[in-house]
Amino acid sequence: MTTDRLDQPRALRRTLRPHYDPEAFGRLSERIARFLGTARFIVYMTVFVSVWVLWNVFAPPHLKFDPYPFIFLTLMLSLQASYAAPLILLAQNRQDDRDRIQYEQDRETADRNQAEIEYLTREIAGLRLAINDVATRDYLRAEMGRLLDELKDTIAASPGAPQDGRSSRTGHAE
């Protein structure tokens, strides 16, 4: 009995199944599906079927390879459709996977943007509150004017103050 050790690579086993790269096959299927969905493909198929039918209708009898009911043409078109359908589905599945990943990335980006917007909104609100607490120039002028008026009233009410409201620093009244 052998123990599978995780610190050592597995021994290579020979298999009869063919190995293929799923990513390369997926890219090839997308290219084929993309081509099948073009007007060029429709034109090519129309020309191919038209030449096939015209050849088998108007060619000399010994050169005709698919007479009137065109059984071989039907078989060829059925074979083409039987391969085209799974290739198109594979390409659609790969596109769905890419869309799902893109959707997740877009959702994460939108969540980050929303968080940043909420943070900036809170910061702006904080700045507005802080600005309301800061004394503005008009507020300071009004307060200084009010204090000047209070000082004038106090000086006018004190005994020995000049009656005309002027200071007596110079010692003389005009």
Give a structural overview.
This protein is mainly α and 174 residues long. The protein has four helices and no strands. The chain has helices spanning 22-36, 39-58, 71-133, 137-157. The chain is elongated, with a radius of gyration of 46 Å. 2% of the residues are buried.
Can you write the helix and strand succession as a string? Answer: HHHH
Biggest pleated sheet: none
Strand content: under 5%
Total helix count? 4
Give the low-confidence spans: 170-174
Overall average pLDDT: 87
Entry summary:
This protein is mostly helical and 174 residues long. Residues 170-174 have low confidence and may be disordered. The protein contains four helices and no strands.
Write the layout of secondary structure elements.
Elements: H1 22-36, H2 39-58, H3 71-133, H4 137-157
Helix pairs in contact: 1-3
Protein traits:
disordered C terminus, elongated, 174 residues, 4 helices, mainly alpha
